[in-house]
Amino acid sequence: xxxxxxxxxxxxxxxxxxxxxxxxxxxxxxxxxxxxxxxxxxxxxxxxxxxxxxxxxxxxxxxxxxxxxxxxxxxxxxxxxxxxxxxxxxxxxxxxxxxxxxxxxxxxxxxxxxxxxxxxxxxxxxxxxxxxxxxxxxxxxxxxxxxxxxxxxxxxxxxxxxxxxxxxxxxxxxxxxxxxxxxxxxxxxxxxxxxxxxxxxxxxxxxxxxxxxxxxxxxxxxxxxxxxxxxx
Length: 232
What we know:
Elements: H1 2-43, H2 50-66, H3 69-79, H4 97-123, H5 126-134, H6 139-169, H7 181-192, H8 195-224
Helix pairs in contact: 1-2, 1-4, 1-7, 1-8, 2-4, 3-4, 4-6, 5-6, 6-8, 7-8
Membrane topology: Multi-pass membrane protein
Keywords: Amino-acid transport, Cell membrane, Membrane, Transmembrane, Transmembrane helix, Transport
Main location: membrane
């Protein structure tokens, strides 16, 4: 068994460094950008035609929070090639597995994180808005200099949890032929007939990655809360 572990671990780790971690990071960064814009759109007080944009944002959040991530991956990778639009996509929307995975993970992460960011912004006392307006600050300036920095500290723990969950969810990318850590462990298990050993080994690697992220979360919380008076 030790020989199986020593020969398989480098292959699983290589897949993690080549696919699991990069896909997680890129998807999370894109997802955060989507989440921020979605949250700001939903919090906007504009009227008129902007209501349509707010409705689209609400529908997007509802759609990706109401359907399983695995189903979303299948729709994007296996389903969209059948969506043929003459003059635009005559052969359907076809994407490479990594591109389809990043797109799906980003949209899914954006939907969940947008609610986290929206709640964090709403948690900031409204009196700070009024005080900033009273000295002539505009809404974008208030968001950038007062509200968002405080909302970042509040949203850091749940956003970190979302990132850790995303790292584990990348195991679903094996279903669309991305050779990440879990897929590699499946391939090796099919060769050596040791599924318990291989799946336990890949679980250890996921646990190690997530432990590092948990440590990083704690460090960032200390940095962002260094001026906050602790509650006795």
